[in-house]
């Protein structure tokens, strides 16, 4: 009986190809919208999470807004390091300079920091070495370039030992970072960036003298709360118990917040796309009602030869479900094509169809087909055979 209902439903769909396609179109668009929007949101979530994770989930960022006319000096940072809570701390400041090498000149962002910054940020070198304590203590004019800056200024990344000019001051290149590796503030791989000792930056820039921002890492990821509490207490002691004098950003808290925001965004986008599926379901119900009216005589003949209400209802419900599911399959195929094309233009995010989202789309489409097919099927099943046979259309 089920096989017979499926066969009759397929014959009905195939006999009105254009109308069937237009009926499916609402479901196709709805399913494609649902999968594409949620996949894009998931891709954005993954990209943001990976970026934050690459910075380290045990990272704390301390910013000083009001130094109370008692600024934090570089030598004081060691007071914040504690064996049980804070493993490392490094200052961070930046300025923009004109970098020159031979006849090549370009604007470059220069960051001032110390040796601990390398481990805090999880950087890696392609050539040379990172700055050490002696470089910071002696205000040494040494510089570490990112790969892009080395290529632009020198023409190659193997340039350790050569010199460049930063705002007229000569700096020796002691290292080059791995390609696409920069600091926490970098958002692009093609960016001129360099790192010099913090003490050298205070001489290079008039705006950098004392520490206004520094990074710290907790002893481990499980002691983040203790590390944040310890830092907060130390900063309160340092700035007269004024909570507004500084801010401490917990990297793990930032990650949790971003995941929460992006998940909410995914649900919101999915809800918007689901509305399209509901609209598509209304289209199915509308066409099925038209189909019931057109096939009144067919229904009368089937009833006259013994078909029961359940058999008639199953036929039309199967037809509505088939239209919905065929539209769903086409929508999944369309969404895969859209995401593949989107992946060609957006290189920093990866888009993939989640099995969970696909299952949700299939389940919701089946639900839509059944819900919006019930009334037309019930209406067909309720027709009286004599009235149906008399119907002239």
If you had to describe this structure to a student in words, what would you say it looks like?
- The structure is a single chain.
- This protein has helices at residues 2-15, 17-55, 116-121, 133-137, 147-153, 198-204, 224-238, 251-294, 296-304, 309-345, 355-381, 385-390; strands at 59-64, 86-91, 93-101, 104-113, 125-128, 142-145, 163-166, 169-177, 193-197, 213-218, 246-250.
- With 393 residues, it is of the alpha+beta class.
- It folds into two domains: 2-51 and 256-390, no CATH class; 67-241, no CATH class.
- It is elongated, with a radius of gyration of 33 Å.
Can you lay out the helices and strands and say which pair or pack?
Blueprint lengths: L1 H14 L1 H39 L3 E6 L21 E6 L1 E9 L2 E10 L2 H6 L3 E4 L4 H5 L4 E4 L1 H7 L9 E4 L2 E9 L15 E5 H7 L8 E6 L5 H15 L7 E5 H44 L1 H9 L4 H37 L9 H27 L3 H6 L3
Parallel strand pairs: 4-9, 6-8
Antiparallel strand pairs: 1-10, 1-11, 2-10, 3-4, 3-7, 5-8, 6-9, 7-8
Helix pairs in contact: 1-10, 2-8, 2-10, 2-11, 8-10, 8-11, 10-11
Describe the structure concisely for a colleague:
This protein is an alpha+beta fold and 393 residues long.
Strand order of the largest sheet: 3-4-9-6-8-7
Oligomer: single chain
The termini sit apart by 28 Å
Report the order of strands and helices.
Answer: HHEEEEHEHEHEEEHEHEHHHHH
Unreliable segments (pLDDT under 50, ≥5 consecutive)? 182-188
Number of domains: 2
Strand content: 15-25%
């Amino acid at each position: 009986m089920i096989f017979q209902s499926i066969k009759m439903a397929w014959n009905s769909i195939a006999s009105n190809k254009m109308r069937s396609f237009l009926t499916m179109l609402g479901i196709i668009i709805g399913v494609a919208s649902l999968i594409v929007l949620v996949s894009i949101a998931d891709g954005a979530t993954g990209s943001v999470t990976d970026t934050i994770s690459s910075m380290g989930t045990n990272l704390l960022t301390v910013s000083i807004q009001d130094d109370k006319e008692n600024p934090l000096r570089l030598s004081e940072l060691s007071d914040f390091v504690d064996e049980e809570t804070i493993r490392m701390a490094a200052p961070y400041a930046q300025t923009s300079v004109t970098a020159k090498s031979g006849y090549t000149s370009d604007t470059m962002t220069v960051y001032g920091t110390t040796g601990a910054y390398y481990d805090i940020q999880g950087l890696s070198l392609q050539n040379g070495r990172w700055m050490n304590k002696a470089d910071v203590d002696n205000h040494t004019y040494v510089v570490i370039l990112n790969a892009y800056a080395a290529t632009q200024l020198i023409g190659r990344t193997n340039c350790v030992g050569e010199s460049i000019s930063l705002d007229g001051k000569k700096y020796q290149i002691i290292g080059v970072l791995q390609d696409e590796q920069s600091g926490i503030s970098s958002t692009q791989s093609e960016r001129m960036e360099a790192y010099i000792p913090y003490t050298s930056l205070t001489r290079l820039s008039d705006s950098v003298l004392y520490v206004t921002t520094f990074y710290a890492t907790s002893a481990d990821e499980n002691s983040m709360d203790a590390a944040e509490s310890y830092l907060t207490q130390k900063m309160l002691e340092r700035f007269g118990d004024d909570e507004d004098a500084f801010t401490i950003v917990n990297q793990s808290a930032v990650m949790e917040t971003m995941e929460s925001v992006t998940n909410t965004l995914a649900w919101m986008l999915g809800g918007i796309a689901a509305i399209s599926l509901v609209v598509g379901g209304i289209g199915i119900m509308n066409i099925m009602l038209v189909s019931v009216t057109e096939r009144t005589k067919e229904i009368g003949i089937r009833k006259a030869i013994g078909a029961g209400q359940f058999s008639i209802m199953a036929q039309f419900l199967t037809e509505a479900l088939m239209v919905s599911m065929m539209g769903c399959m086409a929508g999944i195929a369309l969404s895969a094509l859209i995401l593949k094309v989107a992946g060609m233009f957006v290189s920093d995010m990866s888009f993939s169809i989640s099995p969970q989202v696909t299952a949700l789309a299939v389940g919701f489409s089946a639900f839509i087909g059944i819900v919006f097919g019930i009334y037309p099927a019930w209406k067909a099943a309720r027709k009286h055979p004599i009235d149906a046979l008399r119907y002239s259309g």
